[in-house]
TrEMBL record, chain A:
Family assignment from sequence similarity: Belongs to the GcvT family.
InterPro entries given in the database record: GcvT, GcvT/YgfZ/DmdA, GcvT/YgfZ_C, GcvT_C, GCVT_N, TrmE/GcvT-like
UniProt-listed Enzyme Commission number(s): 2.1.2.10
Residue stretches making up the Aminomethyltransferase C-terminal domain: 292-367
Reactions the enzyme catalyzes: N(6)-[(R)-S(8)-aminomethyldihydrolipoyl]-L-lysyl-[protein] + (6S)-5,6,7,8-tetrahydrofolate = N(6)-[(R)-dihydrolipoyl]-L-lysyl-[protein] + (6R)-5,10-methylene-5,6,7,8-tetrahydrofolate + NH4(+)
GO biological process: glycine catabolic process
Alphabetical list of Pfam families matching this protein: GCV_T (PF01571), GCV_T_C (PF08669)
Name of the protein: aminomethyltransferase
Residue numbers binding substrate: 199
GO CC entries: glycine cleavage complex
Species for this entry: Paracoccus amoyensis
Enzyme type, top EC level: transferase
Annotated GCVT N-terminal domain residues: 10-259
Keyword terms of this UniProt record: Aminotransferase, Transferase
């Protein structure tokens, strides 16, 4: 029997807005609204898109001894990032690795003065929480009384500032607490679209009210998971379970940038996380395969699972597409695949689609220029 | 005279040919169409054969030949402007087919029956 799908606090609002709901990572989520995926995508790039991301896991990690450094060092045993040294009010991207150097999940973590706030993928949340609970020096507290919104696009700042003027001062990857009508909002200037924008954790008690206040702004439209996928793909951002998983290492996923020098060989806090030897050796030597961008020459999208070849005929597949769709802002299909790291950008390869090989060009990621407010 | 198939295609008799497109219901289900691959003119096809590839932002799907026959024309303008399928599905024809059996259209649903099917 199928497990019952969970719903966010905005389920009724999605239905009223005419959303088409689909199962996603155990949740019933809006894949699109009547505007349609293409228009929703373009609206986000031109104005502001509002996404319900309340399916994602929000988790507090609190040091038992009251010393934040204790929590930072505990998290560094699971995450190859600099947790210690992250200033209060700032957020970073990181990965949970496993003993073979594969990726268990990717996450955001923020320094909130006396604890860390983590945001993890919906499909991995349960496993991540269990993983965190192996740390003896911290309390791990899943946040269950809040929703999570993402407001993304060039008009996001104006739309949020109309309700909370102080957010104009926030910079990319700032993480702050703001009061809205007596409710505590946890706001970070970040997102998953390549656009400037915010991710806003809202108490369930005011979630609908706050969401409707944003939607009353004519620049803001609700956006579904369909456009979220094409937006993040154009921005060259990997999606867990597709572009990375337990068989893919940080270097292969092209996420080595999230592992700073001080966690690498020769660094002050080198290693000390699961799979460190494998992960660090590969970062030092360079991976043989890594996540690359592909742009088909024609208009046919190449999707997950499509095999890539060096030649128009014969030969063994070089790899498979891990994410691919039509990119409305790129004006054509876009895809990512794990491929030979030594092939130069611009190389012409072939994608086998419905028995035919179609030309694709190896392309530097991202496919669009991000517009973060640094 | 307009007829409909269970595969959500509309069929319109035009002389000896049948013009084939997809219904508004089908185009809504597909979402924004971004790519269309049409069959060769002159190709002989069997009923139910997948002859058009239609890619939306969400997924790839096929359009089947509603009847056996020969493809007499394809709408290459539509392949250049795939979004027309969403903008005006009843005007966006994909191909014309000359049925092997001149009475081939008779078994298909009329509009009332099709509306009942999709609810």
């Amino acid at each position: 029997m199928a497990e019952e799908l969970r719903r966010t606090g905005l389920y009724d609002l999605h239905i009223e807005q005419g959303a088409r709901m689909v199962p996603f990572a155990g949740w019933e989520m809006p894949v699109q609204y009547p505007m349609g995926v293409m228009a929703e995508h373009l609206h986000t790039r031109e104005k502001a898109g509002l996404f319900d991301v309340g399916h994602m896991g929000q988790v507090l990690v609190i040091p038992k001894d009251g010393n934040l450094e204790t929590a930072a060092l505990a998290l560094e045993t699971l995450i190859p990032a600099a947790v210690l040294g992250l200033p209060e009010g700032r957020q970073r991207y990181g990965l949970f690795t496993n003993a073979s150097g594969g990726i268990l999940d990717d996450l955001m973590f923020a320094n909130r003065g006396d604890h860390y706030l983590l945001v993890v993928n919906a499909g991995c949340a349960e496993q991540d929480i269990a993983h965190l609970q192996t740390l003896v020096d911290v309390d791990v507290v899943p946040v269950t009384d809040r929703g999570l919104l993402a407001l993304q696009g060039p008009k996001a700042e104006g739309a949020l500032a109309a309700l909370l003027p102080a957010v104009r001062q926030m910079k990319f990857m700032d993480s702050q607490i703001h009061d809205w009508n007596g409710a505590e909002l946890w706001i970070s200037r970040s997102g998953y679209t390549g656009e400037d924008g915010f991710e806003i954790s809202v108490p369930n008690t005011v979630l609908r009210e706050f969401t409707e206040a944003l939607l009353r702004n004519p620049d803001v439209a609700p956006i579904g998971l369909g456009a979220r996928d094409s937006l993040r793909l154009e921005a060259g951002m990997p999606l867990y379970g597709h572009d990375m998983n337990t068989d893919v290492t940080p270097a292969q996923a092209a996420l080595g940038w999230s592992i700073p020098k001080l966690r690498r060989v020769g660094g002050a806090r080198a290693g000390g996380f699961p799979g460190a030897e494998i992960v660090l050796a590969e970062l030092a030597n360079g991976p043989t395969v890594t996540r690359r961008g592909l742009r088909p020459e024609g208009r046919a999208p190449i999707r997950e699972g499509v095999e890539i070849f060096a030649d128009e005929d014969g030969g063994q597949a070089l790899g498979k597409v891990c994410s691919g769709t039509f990119g409305p802002s790129a004006g054509g299909p876009v895809a990512m695949a794990l491929l030979d790291a030594s092939l130069p950008d611009g190389t012409r390869l072939w994608a086998e689609l419905r028995g035919k090989r179609l030309p694709v060009i190896l392309t530097e990621l991202p496919f669009i220029t991000p517009s973060y407010k640094r | 005279m307009l007829k409909f198939t269970e595969d959500h295609e509309w069929l319109r008799a035009e002389g000896e040919d049948v013009v084939v497109g997809i219904t508004a219901h089908a185009s809504e289900q597909l979402g924004d169409v971004v790519f269309i691959e049409l069959p060769e003119e002159g190709r002989e096809v069997a009923a139910g054969e997948e002859i058009v590839v239609i890619e939306s932002v969400k997924a790839a799907s096929d359009i089947v030949a509603p009847v056996a026959g020969v493809i007499t024309a394809v709408n290459s303008d539509l392949a250049d402007n795939p979004g027309n399928v969403n903008a005006d599905p009843m005007a966006a024809w994909f191909f014309k087919i000359k049925p092997a059996d001149a009475a081939a259209l008779e078994g298909f649903m009329d509009e009332a029956a099709y509306q009942a099917l999709i609810g």
